[in-house]
Amino acid sequence: MRLFIAIMLSDDMKKSVIGTMHELKKADVRGSYVPAQNLHVTLAFIGETKDAAAIKTAMQTISCKPFRMAFADMGVFDNLLWVGIKGNQGLNKLAKYVTTALDAAQIPYDRKKFVPHITIIRNMGGPWKKVSPPKGDMTVKKVSLMKSEQKDGKRVYTEIFSVDLGGKG
After folding, report:
1. pLDDT tens digit string along 96-135?
2. Is a pLDDT exceeding 60 seen at residue 168?
3. DSSP letter string, 78-112
4. What pLDDT is attached to residue 147?
5. N or C: which end of the chain has fewer CB within 10 A?
6. Secondary structure in 3-state letters for the chain
7. Is the dihedral of CA 29, 132, 87, 146 positive or negative?
């Protein structure tokens, strides 16, 4: 099973991103647009594992207060177009708490530097800089363990576990 830990976007944040995606399409930006239900901020990519129970147990040790998260700019990693998240102490703390919990449980994960973003287009090409980034913010109140699988040729993300934020942090 392919897993990752993420923050799922509120409906209002999704609507804002979808509006930007429509503007990108109008501006003739090509690529594989991420479905609205898959929009998220990855905190830790775990990849293939059979031990979801250990990850759930590790996630239950995360103690962090809810915090506000807002969109920033848009940018590109190779051929991925993304929406950035404004610099945020709460978000950085949460990402650190997640990786610390995974380390304590000896669960392997991708150790790339945390760069908070939401991927919106893969294999992107076209004049994306003509379009303004989405606007919006939300209170992050939970962290989700997500399963990623291929169904009918499409990537589908399903929440299989979550923890509510509200502890110290």
Report:
1. 999 999 999 999 999 999 999 999 999 999 999 999 999 9
2. no
3. TTEEEEEE---HHHHHHHHHHHHHHHHTT-----P
4. 97
5. N
6. CEEEEEEECCHHHHHHHHHHHHHHHHCCCEEEECCHHHCEEEEEEEEECCCHHHHHHHHCCCCCCCEEEEEEEEEEECCEEEEEECCCHHHHHHHHHHHHHHHHCCCCCCCCCCCCEEEEEEEEECCHHHCCCCCCEEEECEEEEEEEEEECCEEEEEEEEEEECCCCC
7. negative
